[in-house]
Specification:
The structure is a homodimer. Chain A is an alpha+beta fold. Chain A has two domains: about 325 residues, Bira Bifunctional Protein, Domain 2 (BirA Bifunctional Protein, domain 2, 2-Layer Sandwich), CATH 3.30.930.10; about 90 residues, Anticodon-binding domain (Rossmann fold, 3-Layer(aba) Sandwich). The first copy, chain A, is about 35% helix and about 25% strand. Chain A has 14 helices and 23 strands. In chain A, strands 3, 7, 8, 9, 10, 11, 12, 13 and 16 form a nine-stranded mixed β-sheet that branches. In chain A, helix 11 links the parallel strand 19 and strand 20. In chain A, helix 11 runs parallel beside helix 14. Chain A starts with 20 loop residues before the first helix and ends with a helix. At the A-B interface, strand 1, strand 2, helix 2, strand 3 and strand 4 of A face strand 1, strand 2, helix 2, strand 3 and strand 4 of B. Chains A, B: Its EC number is 6.1.1.15. Chains A, B: InterPro entries: aa-tRNA-synt_IIb, aa-tRNA-synth_II, aa-tRNA-synth_II/BPL/LPL, Anticodon-bd, Anticodon-bd_dom_sf, Pro-tRNA-ligase_IIa, Pro-tRNA-synth_IIa_bac-type, Pro-tRNA_synthetase. Chains A, B: Belongs to the class-II aminoacyl-tRNA synthetase family. ProS type 2 subfamily.
């Protein structure tokens, strides 16, 4: 993309209404525009990051064998009356009446609807196990929306639902989700720690939240600091291998890590060596639940087993806050000058800064770089504006592309351009061809 | 995907409520489930087609230089009061009140909001031309939703908006959209004819609708039948070349083609040779508008020109019915046995039918084909169920994958499998390696 033809409305001033770094930086970098309290437009740069996160979530869900579909944003009230949640849900549920006076709602979550889909089409144990998920816009009418996309009202979420014949099968689904979530967050450059949590209005016995450590997090967290060293890395996971999947879960959850809701100071003091006890704050970026037959029983989602019995299915639900992750990643990765995107989610793979726009040789070198990077399947952002170098650098730093190639007449005289890491600030002089190879190598296999 | 692990709830019976082929077939093929009147869940197979259509729309919009963003589903009423459309829009607009008694609405279209984004961030002619678009769920509270996704209430639509300094520039944007739409539809296997139409509630002088000829279309259309032979094909389009783009538009619109709204029997009889006059029905799958300063003037979307004057920008809007296209494609491409997907949008590239599940050699051959097709970057659907051949064929025919590879012990004895075209029914005996090459060749470059 050529910046001269893009829509990147960066702001010079820090917006007064933004209290936390991610909100400030998303506004300043022209990623979002608030349309009303807690409801945002995703401007082109923000939309790119959102789509990257969505893509990673899709890929990791499907790698784990989960099947995508798409449920509508609006739901009929009847389904929620069946489960008993229509009256229980409270004023966060946006209730709507259509022109024929039917009660509807903007879905805050989809346990009822997915159970309805299941019971309409599945009746035999032979069709299980089954995990269905979707990524869709949801709405919760927060009284005080704040922190930008971190606590918005209209938000994009992945929610998935497993259907299993037995509790044991459902717990494998639970574990499978935990491992796939760990990989999902790692691909986004995040360390998200699974913590034993409280089930809230979803219900159920087993639940873990995934928290990204950040000072601006809404939850107080208590953890053994060795838990932050766990890494899934590139190890091969067979999601059908129950023992392997369970062992990974054990590895990531054996050390103490809990939110204030479930913190137990007795266990904390008895089991965590004092030098490893850490209290901090975390941003919740996902949660998994096993809730058994809580929805399948009242809603009649049953299957026939091999011996002819009719049993309600065991279910769980599993959510990732897709739009919230954009904010969480920024909270975890920024500095005074702006955002620092992890390679996995960056809106463009690298920037090209032309130090002397209009100079024939410099322009030609930039054009060649732009074309060659695209030829490698990369998506560069070329700052071809007629602007001062300082302004171009400030924009690149603000929007946080992890790599920048700087092209100027002085370097070109020696056949060189400069490749700079946004994270470290380190620069290297390279030939244009070397720079292209280097950047292509960084993104190879992603 | 292995069918034994997929969620493909095909129906044996034809649902009584479905009046047209696409609605019937989408229900029977397990593509959608109605959740309430005019609101559907997209089951896994339907979701795949929807995503393919969305991807093609994105690719062709970006090829034309248009920039994606994403506006929210819910909009504040104030914006619509500014343009004067809040009261004018009628009961099809779903009006919502939030917990703080603010008036909101589920967006039926986005002229107001995009104008608000524009005026907040753009003030100079130097930032133009600019075309922004998004693909988002919209809602129109139809009194009588019917025909499945063809006339639903919650529907997925691409809507784009151009901003230009002069009328001349805006008309180039209009033409650019026409050409990019022609390519979009062709990639989906559709012949969509641009017809001079009526502007309706969007307003404006110039507008064309794109119609797919089909007996079940909602519009009566009058056209010179030579218009159906026009094809954009693979010709290279430079979307910045005004003359070239205008010439393509001229080529596709010079012959008479109008909906009943704008039909003029005087011109019809004077200009269309009698043997070429055709009256038929069409499904609207898109529409483009030029409406000048209709929104920019009341909403104050202005730019400063080179000579310092402040002028309202010239705008147009441009829509493609993404979810509706799924139905339109089926209306245009099906037979008694089911859907026939064009290669551009098919949910899976080909099917593999195992005629003797459980036979070691047949299973092994199917597994090898499955792996080899995936190795070519293809996405096959392998029917590995323990079911009769007749049932497997019926399912494949119903869901309409354009190519099927049939594997049985008899063929394998001679080292052969059978490759069958869903469209023609023609079969060929090939070695498995040849079949893989053939299918890969069909999809090469898509």
């Amino acid at each position: 993309m050529r910046l001269s033809r893009y829509f990147l409305p960066v702001l010079r001033e820090t917006p007064a209404e933004a209290q936390i770094a991610s909100h400030r930086l998303m506004l300043r970098a022209g990623m979002i525009k608030q349309q009303q309290a807690g409801i945002y437009s995703w401007l082109p740069l923000g939309f790119r990051v959102l789509k990257n996160i969505e893509r990673i979530v899709h890929e990791e869900q499907q790698r784990a064998g989960h099947i995508p579909l798409l449920m509508p944003t609006l739901q009929p009230a009847e389904l929620w009356r069946e489960s008993g949640r229509y009256d229980a849900y409270g004023p966060e549920m946006l209730r709507i009446r259509d022109r024929q006076d039917r009660d509807m709602l903007f879905g805050p979550t989809n346990e009822e609807m997915i159970t309805d889909i299941f019971r309409s089409h599945v009746s035999s144990y032979k069709d299980l196990p089954l995990t269905l998920y979707h990524i869709q816009w949801k709405f919760r009418d927060e009284m005080r929306p704040r922190f930008g996309v971190m606590r918005g009202r209209e938000f994009l979420m992945k929610d998935g639902y497993n259907f299993d014949v037995t509790k044991e099968d459902a717990l494998h689904a639970y574990n499978r989700h935990m491992v796939s979530y760990l990989r999902t967050y790692e691909r986004m450059g995040l360390t998200a720690i699974p913590m034993r949590a409280d089930s809230g209005p979803i219900g159920g016995d087993d639940t873990h939240e995934f928290l990204v450590l950040a000072e601006t997090g809404e939850s107080e967290v208590f953890y053994d600091d060795r838990v932050t060293n766990r890494e899934l890395g590139k190890r091969d996971i067979d999601y059908d291998d129950r023992a392997q999947v369970a062992a990974v879960c054990e590895e990531f959850t054996q050390l103490y890590a809990r939110t204030d809701e479930t913190h137990d100071s007795g266990i904390w003091e008895a089991e965590v060596p004092e030098e490893h006890r850490k209290v901090g704050r975390g941003i919740e970026v996902g949660q998994i639940f096993y809730f058994g037959t809580k929805y399948s029983e009242p809603m009649g989602a049953t299957v026939q087993t091999a011996d002819g019995a009719t049993v309600p299915v065991h279910m769980g639900s599993h959510g990732i806050g897709v739009s919230r992750l954009v904010g969480a990643i920024i909270e975890a990765s920024h500095d005074d000058r702006g955002i620092i995107w992890p390679e996995g989610v960056t809106p463009f793979h690298c920037g090209i800064v032309n130090l002397r726009q209009g100079d024939a040789e410099t322009d030609a070198a930039c054009e060649a770089l732009y074309r060659d990077l695209q030829g490698k399947g990369l998506d560069p952002l070329y700052d071809d504006r007629d602007a001062r170098a300082g302004e171009k650098f400030a924009t690149m730093d603000l929007i946080g592309l992890p790599w920048r190639i700087t092209v100027g007449p002085r370097g070109l005289k020696e056949g060189k351009v400069e490749l700079t890491s946004r994270r470290t600030g380190d620069s290297e002089e390279l030939t244009p061809a070397q720079a292209v190879e280097r950047v292509a190598g960084i993104y190879a296999g992603r």
